[in-house]
Write a structure and sequence with these properties.
Number of helices: 10
Structural class: alpha/beta
CATH topology of the largest domain: Aminopeptidase
CATH class of the largest domain: Alpha Beta
Number of domains: 2
CATH superfamily of the largest domain: Zn peptidases
Strand content: 15-25%
Radius of gyration: 26 Å
Shape: globular
Distance between the termini: 66 Å
CATH architecture of the largest domain: 3-Layer(aba) Sandwich
Length: 481
């Protein structure tokens, strides 16, 4: 079609405007600093690396499918370790250069080790993570009747927005232990065809009296009560029917729930997010993401490292790292003492353990929140991490940071291996931290690293596949350095 005079003028103006805009963009980039011009990690990948990113994400999703709690994560990690040639540490004779060993922390924490060629008193390389995550626990008396239904009595675990757990299919997983020594594994809601459990919300037609509740108080803790049953028997109540179904299925008594660890977790399987499949969506990525990267980092070590390499997956971080499988316990120190004592033999003293700790370098790994595209105002835009931009060096301030020389060493490993990285500092008035504080108390050199998530601590967190792969690559390089 022949252009008229008006169209020609409009086209010319648009072209000129585009040129001005392009020139302005070039000028902005020319005057921008390092962080403003930093590319997304996706843009730096070769085709082969891109394939590796997506392949690693499939392995990661398979792990998340199996690892729904700290206990099932421990089980899956040990399975992967055994397949890679690791053996449980049972005897001092096993501790020799190149040995691949694991220490089982009461089935809820685990340490993987590859013994190095140098003595452990010269220091180790450690990646410390946690593999517990926010969920909902059943109480010791888990059943109650309400309005013709049987509901579960629950207590939430970790920092959650309680309303996010309503109207969502939940699975019941965990164990029941009985006084006669029997252990019963429970998993309901994870297989196709299984029933699930749902916390019912109120309809918008009848919730007028609830609408004044605050953002964080849409549900109270006591209202996190999933439906467990609804059909009465001929001569029994609904609650009696539910109790009978569980006790008969698992061969336990109602009072055995007092010695049970049963958790409600999202039943949904991990999934890709977005048409480009660039994100992994799943519950439990805080912090089974770092845990899987640490495990794969040590499983994939080539040859015998100079320094003994360890991956430590702890428990109970989301509630303060207490108990005998949390990072406050002596589990890690006891395991390292066994390794050092095996190496030193009759010469071993407590000072050898202390020297090994003092000379060690540690990555305290945990995810962090990324800039949210819907709520960007909650982040400091000039100091917050972005999904797709690689490994995060966390800078909290207030005495929580690694010293500058160790931070520089970590930067050196990242840059030498071409691994994308960024930094994260919380908005003024906010803070953070993970198990690194406890490791620092043992006189170890510690730095906090992570990768950013969207919807952190929700039942469906999102991570960038390129960040997960980058974190794995860094851990492998650090442990083998």
């Amino acid at each position: 079609m022949k252009k008229g005079p008006l169209l020609i003028v409009v086209a010319s103006l648009l072209t000129a405007a585009a040129g001005i805009g392009a020139g302005a963009d070039k000028e902005d980039k020319k005057g921008a600093g390092y962080w403003e011009t930093k590319k997304s990690a996706w843009e730096t990948l070769t085709p082969a690396q891109r394939d590796q990113v997506f392949k690693f994400a499939e392995d990661y999703k398979a792990y998340l499918t199996a690892a729904r709690t700290a206990e099932t994560s421990t089980r899956e990690v040990i399975r992967l370790a055994k397949a890679a040639g690791f053996a449980e540490l049972k005897d001092a004779s096993q501790v020799k250069a190149g040995a691949k060993l694991y220490v089982n922390g009461r089935e809820r924490a685990v340490i993987l080790a590859v013994v190095g060629s140098e003595a452990m008193v010269s220091g180790i390389r450690l990646v410390g993570t946690h593999h517990d995550s926010p969920h909902i626990d059943l109480k010791a008396r888990p059943f109650r009747a309400a309005g013709g239904f049987t509901l579960f009595n629950t207590a939430y675990y970790g920092g959650i927005k309680k309303y996010q757990w309503a109207n969502r299919a939940l699975a019941l997983v965990g164990r029941i232990d009985t006084p006669d020594g029997k252990r019963v594994e429970v998993a309901i809601g994870l297989k196709d065809g299984d029933p699930v459990f749902v916390i019912p919300d109120n309809a918008p037609h009848s919730d007028k009296m609830l609408r004044e509740r605050k953002y964080t108080e849409v549900f109270t803790g006591e209202e996190l009560a999933p439906v467990a049953g609804s059909i009465p028997g001929a001569d029994t109540t609904v609650i009696e029917q539910v109790v009978a179904a569980l006790t008969s299925t698992y061969g336990v008594r109602e009072e055995d729930f007092a010695s049970a660890e049963l958790a409600l977790v999202p039943a949904a399987r991990p999934a890709d997010v977005g048409l480009d499949r660039g994100l992994v969506g799943s519950a439990g990525q805080d912090d089974r993401l770092s845990s899987y990267c640490a495990v794969r980092g040590i499983l994939d070590l080539a040859g015998t490292p100079k320094k003994t390499a360890l991956a430590y997956l702890s428990n109970f971080e989301e509630v303060g790292s207490d108990n005998n499988t949390g990072a406050k316990s002596q589990f890690f120190n006891n395991a390292l003492a066994r390794l050092v004592a095996a190496e030193r033999g009759a010469k071993y003293t407590d000072l050898d353990l202390r020297e090994a700790l003092r000379r060690s370098e540690v990555i305290s790994a945990d995810v962090n929140d990324g800039i949210n595209p819907v709520f960007p105002q909650t982040s400091d835009p000039g100091n917050s991490a972005r999904l797709g931009y690689g490994v995060t060096i966390k800078r909290y301030g207030a005495g929580f940071d690694a010293n500058s020389e160790f931070a520089a060493r970590i930067r050196g490993i990242l840059e030498k291996n071409g691994i994308a990285w960024q930094t994260q500092s919380p908005k003024e008035g906010y803070s953070g931290g993970t198990i690194g504080g406890f490791l620092s108390e043992w006189d170890m050199e510690v730095i906090d690293l992570g990768v950013p998530l969207l919807s952190m601590h929700s039942p469906f967190e999102m991570s960038s596949k390129v960040d997960v792969w980058s974190f794995y690559r860094f851990m492998n390089a650090f442990l083998g350095a």
